[in-house]
Write a structure and sequence with these properties.
Layout lengths: L12 E5 L8 H6 L4 E6 L2 E6 L2 H22 L1 H16 L5 H10 L1
Parallel strand pairs: 1-2
Antiparallel strand pairs: 2-3
Length: 106
């Protein structure tokens, strides 16, 4: 994290003490929805608890980022993407309908 990073301010994040874990059962966890719990002891964060739905969203975001990094570090793919942007900028594009029409002619 850089020197100028902004703090993560998210109203769904709740800080709870370890002693509150005893109160968290399946029903209460379902009621919390997408809230994230930072479990701490004496103001020291120990663990994070969030919904399975949020976990899946985070995995999807991470996989997307990793795919993008992989693409951008592959010279062939990066050159192809930059060429595509140049084609768009220069107006060398066709709509999907135009491409499909050409394919039907063949």
């Amino acid at each position: 994290m850089g020197a100028y990073a902004f703090p993560d301010i998210d109203p769904r994040i709740r800080h709870v003490g370890v002693s509150k874990l005893r109160d968290l059962n399946a029903t209460k966890l379902k009621e919390q929805g997408d809230d994230t719990f930072v479990i701490q002891e004496n103001d020291t964060p120990l663990s994070v608890l969030f919904s399975y739905k949020r976990y899946q969203e985070m995995r999807t975001e991470m996989n997307s980022l990793l795919s993008m990094i992989e693409m951008l570090t592959n010279d062939t793919e990066r050159i192809g993407v930059l060429a595509a942007f140049e084609d768009i900028r220069s107006g060398r594009i066709r709509t999907l309908a135009e491409i499909e029409a050409d394919m039907e002619k063949e």
